[in-house]
Structure prediction request, 680 residues.
Amino acid sequence: MRKDINISEVAKKAGVSIATVSRVFNNSGPVKESTRKAIQKIIEETGYLPNVLARELAEKRTNLVGMIVHNLSGEGMSRAIEGVNRVLDSNSYSLLMTCSNGSLESERKHFELLRLKRVDGIIFATRSFKEEHKDMIEKLPVPVVVMLQNTENAGVPFVAFANTAFAKGATQKLIELGHREVAFLGGPEDSVNANERKRGFIEALEDAGIAVEEDFICHGNYHIESGYEQMKTILKRKKIFTAVVAVNDGMAIGALNCLQDHDVKVPEEVSVLGLDDTVLAKASRLKLSGVHYSYNDLGFEAAQMLLKQMQSEVYDFEKKVLPYEIHLRESVQARTHYKN
Amino acid sequence: MRKDINISEVAKKAGVSIATVSRVFNNSGPVKESTRKAIQKIIEETGYLPNVLARELAEKRTNLVGMIVHNLSGEGMSRAIEGVNRVLDSNSYSLLMTCSNGSLESERKHFELLRLKRVDGIIFATRSFKEEHKDMIEKLPVPVVVMLQNTENAGVPFVAFANTAFAKGATQKLIELGHREVAFLGGPEDSVNANERKRGFIEALEDAGIAVEEDFICHGNYHIESGYEQMKTILKRKKIFTAVVAVNDGMAIGALNCLQDHDVKVPEEVSVLGLDDTVLAKASRLKLSGVHYSYNDLGFEAAQMLLKQMQSEVYDFEKKVLPYEIHLRESVQARTHYKN
DNA sequence: CTGAAAGCGCTAACAT
DNA sequence: ATGTTAGCGCTTTCAG
Prediction:
């Protein structure tokens, strides 16, 4: 706990003006070598550190990036933050983190807060992007990049996963393996991401000329227990299916456990695939198939895009959709058990 | 993107001085009702927002709390951040998040950064608290609370889990169930938390008069694969054991899978317990036993403690050790298989 | 190459 | 009840 020393004290000790100290410290403007040395010595001795607040006030920029996320409960989001941090760190920016509970009101409050704090840009993650969000963003004097959501229609720059595409791709893999009766365990019906995945699933079926059966579609809340319950619901309907696609790992694990508890052999009788590839996918003895995408890259790309926007005068629309990989592992095999 | 308006412009429009505007905005000092109304109207119309930077410069405080964590890859840390955020939010503080890679140099850099940014307090999480950390902290003009590490010896306030205690307690439960040959899958040897858990395990054995066998102790890196490998190593030693304690869920899951793959019945032949209770514990069909503690509470308590320290003039040592619960579930049962 | 001085936008003590 | 003014600590012209 030592006292702060400011620029004028340094100047006094060095017998120069504060302007010269400023020049030395920031290497802005010419200073005679001897006086530079002298000032540096004083700076060294006193441990002088400039008051960033004052500097920011004078420069009218904070080198701060704000981030609003709707939840922090999974590992995905913290990976994304890690990615963001990586970029900011190497560009001398700092991260102001806030967590809205997801309500519009809370989000509005956080946008306002970040505006007050004079952040130079904002990364925004929300469950579902609304017209109101667009309004909030347009009122802001700094650029915003949306994360985890396709906001092309609103014309807001974003970085997101290709939910529909990979859900479709994964489902097509199953179809290629001969599966035609495929169940789907979806996420919350108000989640845009979950709905995009569901759409991908449906498109794959339709493209293959397979009728979409409502009896094979359920909705849950991403958790293991929910996957278990929804799988049970579908089993109770007593219709034959040979594969299940789950909106995420948790639901897939739940489904897997449920099937095994009901003496349904995986993958011999039913293949299981999760549209996700978190640590959970490795937890079961039976290696779970899934779609892999990187949250770390998500954050990384979002931060990159934001910095770019911050540097340009006009905030052009821009988008980045991250790549993915489909991994078929032990939980999936070709349809063999039920022959037509 | 509208232009900012400042206090003097508001004052001019309202035909008053900036002091009066400030009084109205901050509700500091008396203002005649009619002029207050008038000023509020202008504020409303213009959308005036004070420049927080200027205010902070004048007030010499930022309402910012800094946080340095050594990694963001698990769900635990993001839960902790959530807890911190919850407290800060309701106390009008914001969170400046930084992620060090865990190296001393990087941590030093981040402390310096937060100092520059004039945060009012810091929450610090590191893998292993060193003398150097104590020095860095003592140089700081603001209070620091350490998270996830017992820094009692250094006299630095901290909030942590009772690693030794719950590891000991959980092991004792196994001993009470008749187990005497218990294996331990530990974490990295340089992790303080992992070592504390190992110590608890050993203390429980010693208290029960059971010799500690080095052959039953292995070290891994917290991951599922590592648990699998270490379990295999112990199995290869061909010594009989009836229970395994793993330093965390991941290793426990790995151990579980390994045992089952080697036709060892869990829990009939070997009980498995993880010193953890994350989402992973629910992933296997066999409900994994474990120790439950809340990362969210950890963050919550750390933030509470920090705010308290920030309010008092002197930074007294203070500590908070969080409660835990031991959950014995399907993966654990009394020793029956091997009778003496 | 260096210094003086005018901001940056706000708070708070001091006048009136 | 309101205005004046002196900071807060730094950056940046503008002179010299």
Q: What stands out?
A: Chain A has twelve helices and twelve strands. Residues 6-8, 18-19, 22, 26, 28-29, 50-59 of chain A lie near DNA strand D (CB under 10 Å from a C1').
